[in-house]
Structure formats: structure tokens, C-alpha cells
Design brief:
Elements: E1 4-6, E2 11-15, H1 21-28, H2 31-34, H3 45-56, E3 62-68, E4 74-84, E5 89-96, H4 106-120, E6 126-132, H5 136-145, E7 148-159, E8 162-172
Parallel strand pairs: 5-6
Antiparallel strand pairs: 1-2, 2-3, 3-4, 4-5, 6-8, 7-8
Helix pairs in contact: 4-5
Length: about 170
């Protein structure tokens, strides 16, 4: 894998490994992270190990850790899932697990790096995502990274008894 780093923001991406399991479970179970996911259930070590075995190791998912260039400290994760080789597309996801890494452009830089990886190394043509339509900070970040709005699904999911709109966005290889 080529090196995917953004010196301006001070981050790089590395492939996720089994050693990252406890950290990912901790991050995904934080309220600040979980509230922005359609899948709201608590993560477990067993569930993440099954994800690695059934999705990552079978090539259906590529997951990376966002790291600080200076300290090498993990800050969060980006991934593509449901990789469709027939139509050359996949769904993008991200979470920033460390509180001090939020709000300083890490998510935007990581999305740009992951899109570069998707188009250059995976040969994908289209990378799409789903976001809560009221998550304006995430939507602005995705747009800065190169995603464009494609559609709005009204009352698409029910989270804790409340229906929520989902915004579909995508980036397409040039």
C-alpha cells in the first residue's frame, strides 16, 4: 500500500489490525461517536472480531486507522464496506474517536486520503455514504473532501422511536 498522509493536517492512514480491536470498540461505544451512526447498538470485542473475520478478511471491507504523524497516536478510523467489484463502488464510513481530534479538519483530511486510496488502489469508480441529514458538521466535511449530495430519504430510519432523514452523498472518480 502506498503512503496516505496529509502533512498539513498532520495525519496518515494505516491498515487496521487485530491489535486495534479494543480501541475501536471503545471509540464506537462513545456517545459522541455512536449518535452519528445508523447502527446504534453497543459494540463488543466479539462483534468486532467477527467483523474482521467475516468482512475484512474476505475483502468486503477495508478499514484503516487515522493516526497523528508526530506521535503515531490513533485518532479514529475510516473504512469502505460492501465493496462491489462488479460495479466498482463501496460505502464510506468514518469516526473520530479521540475528542481532541474533532473540529480541526482530521475528518476532512482522512476522507480525502481514503478517496484517493479508493480510486488509486482499489480501482473504485464511486464511493458513497449515508449521513443523518441534520448532521451539518459532517456534511460540510464530506463536501470539502469531494462528496456531493445526491438525494434525501425522508424518515428513512427510526432511531430511539424518532424517524430521521438520511442524506446520500457520493464521490466519483475523475
Amino acid at each position: 500500500m502506498r503512503e496516505y498522509r496529509d502533512d498539513r493536517t498532520g495525519i496518515y492512514l494505516r491498515l487496521m489490525g487485530p491489535q486495534d480491536t479494543d480501541l475501536i470498540v471503545t471509540w464506537r461505544n462513545k456517545d459522541a461517536v455512536r449518535k452519528n451512526f445508523i447502527y446504534q447498538k453497543l459494540f463488543t470485542r466479539e462483534g468486532h472480531e467477527a467483523w474482521i473475520r467475516e468482512k475484512v478478511q474476505t475483502g468486503q471491507v477495508v478499514q484503516m486507522i487515522i493516526c497523528d504523524c508526530g506521535s503515531q497516536r490513533p485518532l479514529g478510523s475510516v473504512y469502505i464496506r460492501d465493496i462491489d467489484r462488479e460495479h466498482n463502488k463501496a460505502e464510506y464510513g468514518i469516526f473520530i474517536g479521540e475528542d481532541d481530534a474533532r473540529g480541526r479538519g482530521v475528518g476532512t483530511a482522512a476522507a480525502r486520503l481514503m478517496l484517493r486510496y479508493c480510486f488509486e488502489e482499489e480501482g473504485l469508480h464511486r464511493v458513497y455514504l449515508r449521513a443523518f441529514a441534520d448532521n451539518l458538521q459532517a456534511i460540510r466535511s464530506y463536501e470539502k473532501a469531494g462528496f456531493v449530495r445526491e438525494g434525501l430519504l425522508k424518515d428513512d430510519v427510526c432511531i430511539r422511536g424518532q424517524y430521521r432523514d438520511i442524506l446520500w452523498m457520493a464521490a466519483v472518480a475523475e
